[in-house]
Amino acid sequence: MIKLPGLIDPHVHLREPGATHKEDFDSGTSAALAGGFTTVLAMPNTKPPIFDKSTLDLALDAAKQKARCDYGQYIGAGPDNAAIAASLSGTAAGLKMYLDSTFGELRLDDMSLWQPHFEKYPRNQPIVAHSESRTMAAAILFAAMYDRSVHIAHVSLKEEILVIKAAKERGIKVTCEVGPHHLFLSKDDIPAISNGHPGRGEVRPRLATKEDVDSLWTNLDVIDCFATDHAPHTIEEKDGENPPPGFPGLETALPLLLTAVDLGRLTLDDLIQKMHVNPRKIFNLPEQPETWVEVDENATYEIKAADQFTRCNWTPFEGWKVKGKVTRVVLRGTEAFKDGKILVQPGFGRNVRI
After folding, report:
1. Of 78, 106, 159, 207, which is the most exposed, with the fewest CB atoms less than 10 Å away?
2. Are residues 130 and 108 in contact, defined by beta-carbon separation less than 8 angstroms?
């Protein structure tokens, strides 16, 4: 057995409000505990999106009733809510800026709409950017212009990690995360994932080339966090005519990364730094006293969607052989998960901003 601190996932989509048939705070935080995560930060692109006090309260009220692990809720940056978002920074996990395609109240069509957010959102609170390639470079430019930090979500490309590396070397305040699916899968794996259903390979950012994947591993020291970007959609939706992009990941991230530790691709200290120490520092998260995760490092098994708590009922890693299994999670002195069973009730989780 090995003992890990409670893991932190700063990037999850729990689909509440508006799409609880895919996931909600109950099922999503159950999946988190089963995966060794004791804190998750939820994204704001829900239905309705979280962009003002009433929608933030809507999400936080649901989480207060249902969450089984600790949680935070991002507020989304829109074209005209910079002052409102800044006023809510004390209760939000951070500000999420969608700098590529999104819709409705969170759509930022041009860079002039970014400026008020960089100006007004408190410097001691995190800004997270969904940005790819050139918009990522632009977000880093804004961090330099306003002399404040920015966290880049789901880095997937060689060019992105090299630009972030160069920015860090020049003292620009930028941090970044990588999702396990971008570390372990390339676009060459899409046929195997799809199993005749092309929609199962749809994710944003898209799966990249093997060269991109290799570059992420080569520049592991540039990566601050491993974050799942847990984005559950039902298997029926993924196999439908207009498949939405996204992969579930809360229950597969740790075993995949522990297997990489076993193979010598990273160290256990790397894992702890990128899944606990750095996320806690970047996102200004409180300590969780008497909290730890027990892992049987020698347990070998196949990943199966049928064994998972997530509501979406599928995984791109179906059938993968992994080594390292979560056997027990203690959260704030209470046994929250043991031997495949969730032991805490809905509402046990606490808001990290209270």
Report:
1. 159
2. no
Rounded to the nearest 5°, which phi and psi values hold at 298?
-100, -5
b/e per residue, 232-265, with b = 16+ CB within 10 A? bbbeebbbeeebbebbbbbbbbbbbbbbbbeeee
- Which of 84, 86, 81, 96 is CA-nearest to residue 122? 86
For residue 66, what are the contacts with CB-CB under 8 A and spacing of at least 6?
16, 24, 25, 26, 29, 346, 347
Alpha-carbon distance of 11 to 225, in angstroms, equals: 10
pLDDT tens per residue across span 187-219: 999 999 998 999 999 999 999 999 999 999 999
> Phi then psi for 157, rounded to 5 degrees?
-115, 150
Quickly count: other Cβ atoms within 10 Å of residue 145's Cβ: 10
pLDDT in tens, 250-265: 999 999 999 999 999 9
Q: How far apart are the first and last CA of the chain?
A: 33
Give every CB contact of residue 54 below 8 A, 6+ residues apart in sequence.
none
User: What 3-state class would DSSP assign to 43?
Assistant: coil
Count other C-beta atoms under 10 Å from residue 289's C-beta.
8
Q: What angle do CA 42, 189, 306 make, to 5 degrees?
A: 55
pTM of this structure: 0.98
Residues comprising the chain, all counted: 354
Sign of the Cα pseudo-torsion (102, 104, 109, 113, in order): negative
Question: What number is the average pLDDT over the span 327-347?
Answer: 98
CA distance linking residue 172 with residue 177, whole number of Å: 16
Alpha-helical segments (H) within the chain: 25-34, 53-66, 82-87, 115-120, 134-146, 158-169, 180-184, 190-194, 210-218, 235-238, 253-262, 268-272, 278-282
Closest-CA residue to 352 (of 8, 17, 2): 8
Alpha carbon distance 229, 234 (integer Å): 16
